[in-house]
Amino acid sequence: xxxxxxxxxxxxxxxxxxxxxxxxxxxxxxxxxxxxxxxxxxxxxxxxxxxxxxxxxxxxxxxxxxxxxxxxxxxxxxxxxxxxxxxxxxxxxxxxxxxxxxxxxxxxxxxxxxxxxxxxxxxxxxxxxxxxxxxxxxxxxxxxxxxxxxxxxxxxxxxxxxxxxxxxxxxxxxxxxxxxxxxxxxxxxxxxxxxxxxxxxxxxxxxxxxxxxxxxxxxxxxxxxxxxxxxxxxxxxxxxxxxxxxxxxxxxxxxxxxxxxxxxxxxxxxxxxxxxxxxxxxxxxxxxxxxxxxxxxxxxxxxxxxxxxxxxxxxxxxxxxxxxxxxxxxxxxxxxxxxxxxxxxxxxxxxxxxxxxxxxxxxxxxxxxxxxxxxxxxxxxxxxxxxxxxxxxxxxxxxxxxxxxxxxxxxxxxxxxxxxxxxxxxxxxxxxxxxxxxxxxxxxxxxxxxxxxxxxxxxxxxxxxxxxxxxxxxxxxxxxxxxx
Amino acid sequence: xxxxxxxxxxxxxxxxxxxxxxxxxxxxxxxxxxxxxxxxxxxxxxxxxxxxxxxxxxxxxxxxxxxxxxxxxxxxxxxxxxxxxxxxxxxxxxxxxxxxxxxxxxxxxxxxxxxxxxxxxxxxxxxxxxxxxxxxxxxxxxxxxxxxxxxxxxxxxxxxxxxxxxxxxxxxxxxxxxxxxxxxxxxxxxxxxxxxxxxxxxxxxxxxxxxxxxxxxxxxxxxxxxxxxxxxxxxxxxxxxxxxxxxxxxxxxxxxxxxxxxxxxxxxxxxxxxxxxxxxxxxxxxxxxxxxxxxxxxxxxxxxxxxxxxxxxxxxxxxxxxxxxxxxxxxxxxxxxxxxxxxxxxxxxxxxxxxxxxxxxxxxxxxxxxxxxxxxxxxxxxxxxxxxxxxxxxxxxxxxxxxxxxxxxxxxxxxxxxxxxxxxxxxxxxxxxxxxxxxxxxxxxxxxxxxxxxxxxxxxxxxxxxxxxxxxxxxxxxxxxxxx
Lengths: 484, 484
What we know:
The structure is a homodimer.
Chain A: H1 13-16, H2 25-38, E1 49-50, H3 65-75, H4 87-99, H5 115-129, E2 138-141, H6 144-153, E3 164-170, H7 174-183, E4 186-191, H8 202-211, E5 215-222, H9 234-247, E6 250-254, H10 269-276, E7 285-290, E8 304-309, H11 313-325, H12 331-341, H13 351-377, E9 382-383, E10 392-393, E11 396-397, H14 401-409, H15 414-426, E12 428-429, E13 431-432, E14 445-448, H16 453-483
Parallel strand pairs in A: 1-12, 3-4, 3-5, 5-6, 6-7
Antiparallel strand pairs in A: 2-8, 7-8, 9-11, 10-14, 13-14
Helix pairs in contact in A: 2-15, 3-4, 3-12, 5-12, 6-7, 9-10, 13-16, 14-15, 14-16, 15-16
């Protein structure tokens, strides 16, 4: 028999380098355990608690009524006559369908998205920043992942005979490392400072930049942080902008958690650059927002937008060409973006329900963030910065030498070993810090915090009990080993 | 002022090579004309007729009731209690939502798609081919463009020091040339034989393969043809399979128009390979289907699937890693796929409406295909193969020497000049053959044929009048020039 056409050795090797821990081996093991439980296997727990992915609906958040009514009527305009549908929903759908070819969400939109949606996005950004935004700078996409990949693709070009590189934070969201791997862009990691609330020191940017063995072309900043949950101070943003200006770096601002704020004010890069004035206000910028995060948290809709500020027209020609080949993002997804950037106005029929739902979502985030920070900081060997934004906790865990040794014996990173044990013994599925990157010798994990109250309490209790038991086992085993 | 970070000379040069005529300069000019008309400009026509893109809803096809009701209820399950919603719609939505995490289309699905949808796809393929299909081989995506790019990405790897190449038909759908440009894969063009109904002669495959200055790794076949509208005969498919086997080529079968059949039976590559037996039945294959085409024609939903047959497990690891980074395709889009592969069964409440809608769509395609073939073949200098499938006509037009000269004076390809004149004088927007590729010295254009009856008749009349006038002008100008 002939060899396969595509083999491990002749397939695109860059794809083999992709690591995406958010859906990595521990998550695969969680799915396997779920199947074992279904088949009646005995476990020390009744079900797996998935805390590996920032997916609010999967954690029980209810969809927003306004968003879903808009989707239903946009899909099926016959529902316009339904008495249960509020007038502002009907008006919104009419406004969107008027901009769809032949009034159908089944027709392609322009590759960058419907004009009406891009106009509403621009209005939203203008109100957010007090700086005029233009619909011409807005591109809708199939989730932030789609748009971030599209923008990073622009940099795949050697400069002066040197390979292109992109600065990314450590810890980072592995979409970045995964996409850079696939595109063959060199990762230039800079470390966030855990001791000062995951701040981003310019000296560290400088260190990372000067050690890079490539042509550094762009700087990724994730604010609010994922997995780290910090919200950058205005001063810190200015320092970053100045650094990028001096080094001629294009800033990619992943600002997808800007509506998931616990405390502290969110400052957009766009606004900061504008207020800093020339020359910073003339710098290029790509800022990403998605309806998978924020209050709507409609991950399944695969919808997002990027604002491309001050990008050269000839560069946009290249960007537009690549976008056109993919046709357009989901038109119903674009409807979700429209709802997110233009929620029901005070006084409109849907406002009361929307604002109650909005308040509930905000309250849950604030309660869980406080409870998680408190619980983790009360555990021996744990340290957790105050969660200022996002929907994650990223505690650091000191692991005893015995655990490090036990992990090595199993060919696992110590934090991977810890998370795997946690899963096997409690059913709680979190993602090891090694999946995001961390300072050598430090160990973390990322957990979502938006579970329903009772499940969240159960999860924290399970982690607490597990950790005490783990310490006992591996501090003892360490002593025992030393006795040998 | 500093130079931009991203400039025409340092942006990814591969993106600058992308040509996507379906949304190219003539289409941009059409949009401009629309704006001019809106502003009150005088034109020899009242509106632009867009015949450039295979978008049935944009041409007035009405959405299928069942599909849209499923979408509406999936988005807004409160509508389950609505008396207007048939029971089979409710049952279908329940079945899908049971497979969504927490019953919400707002949660991420697995990267390959919901299990229930993949199972229905496998049942559909099994019924189509009489060959068992497995849900494990099915991957859902954000349109066929997304999946074709994902599969082509696997081949981006030099083999034995030679750059990788992919065979594509000429004429082809420019998604292929555009994606190959972006990925840096070498195009190895083979020519379809217009004289024998756009058949695909193995001798031509052999010629193209042996002249390729790269490592040819894959063979793209578009069946039914786009833009060419032929349906490959079973014998021709067998010849292609044998050729691919001998050359160790991976077949990518773009079979997205398999439900848009006018006459002649559609044979899938999968079934043909299976029935040919060993060794052909063991070959790798990727076959693409989308809900943007077929009867539903929900382009805006961005939904499609690929069946990856017999691909090596380690290769799938790479494929899955890249897919996981993008999270998943739109969950409402996945609902559309579910409806398409499992339409209402005879006897179910939605069946009568669905089958009437289905019959209407089929009738329109058959009438328009016949009318287009007839009309184009009646014009002097036109030749148009019988349209057997797809939703396009791709007539060849002999252009007088005077027109070729006039085009050259304007820096345009002759067919581009012809289409631009057609647009300016009649408002009819079609895509020049040069956007798809054609034999040197031959000129074509692609037009959609699914317009409403009166618009379609108007379009054919406009092209007819224009062509006679064009011939007169440029045959005369040719004579005049000769007289000079």
